[in-house]
Every structure is written in structure tokens, then in C-alpha cells.
Write a structure and sequence with these properties.
The protein has one domain: 2-Layer Sandwich (Alpha-Beta Plaits), CATH 3.30.70.1290. The protein has four helices and three strands. It has helices at residues 2-5, 33-52, 75-83, 85-88, and strands spanning 9-16, 21-27, 101-103. The chain has a three-stranded antiparallel sheet with strand order 2-1-3. The two termini are 19 Å apart.
């Protein structure tokens, strides 16, 4: 939400998994991908640590994995792939049963 409100990104789809995040977005601001990911990690880590009252909790691994979409790849298909991760992980039987996702195409 911070990246959106700062006009750094336009989110197309996301799903928050128990131990990672899948996020499909378009860069819209003059900020690097590494800066956006670092900002998301920093702010979410602070919130999670504060809510769990555990200042030493390590929330994220170092680095991140990214995949730039090619022209031939369908944003709708990739969005569906992103939000169906909980199904493949056995966390839900239907996408609508899993609460931590959204996609502009669906």
C-alpha cells in the first residue's frame, strides 16, 4: 500500500503466503525495484515485530527473486498464477477461501 500511495507502483496482483509474498506490479515512479522491495521489507518487518512484541524476529531472507515479464506473457495468466499459489501449496481448496490476495483482473 505504501508503494501504491507513493506512486512507485501499480499493483496488478498479489498473494501473501505464510513465508513469502508474490507481487505482480508495474513500476510507475522513479524508484528502483531494489528500493521498492527494501522499503516493503523494512516497513512490514517493523509492523510484524511490533505486533508480535519480538524486536529480534527476522522476517525476510536477504535479497529477492524477480521475474520481468516479456511481451508475449499474459498479465491475466500471470495474475492467475500468482493468486493460485495458496491452492498449489495446499492452503485452500478455492482461491476465494484464502483471504490474503487481490488481483485487478479478477
Amino acid at each position: 500500500m505504501r508503494a501504491e500511495s507513493a506512486n512507485w507502483t501499480t499493483t496488478l496482483a498479489y498473494v501473501v503466503m505464510p513465508d513469502h509474498l508474490h507481487w505482480l506490479f508495474v513500476l510507475t515512479g522513479n524508484v528502483s525495484l531494489a528500493d521498492i522491495v527494501g522499503n516493503v521489507k523494512r516497513h512490514s518487518s517493523r509492523e510484524i515485530r511490533n505486533n508480535r512484541c519480538d524486536a529480534g524476529l527476522r522476517v525476510w531472507q536477504r535479497g529477492f527473486h524477480d521475474h520481468g515479464l516479456r511481451n508475449e506473457e499474459s498479465l491475466v495468466a500471470v495474475s492467475r498464477y500468482v493468486i493460485t499459489n495458496p491452492l498449489r501449496a495446499g492452503l485452500a481448496k478455492r482461491v476465494g477461501d484464502y483471504p490474503l490476495w487481490d488481483a485487478v483482473y479478477l
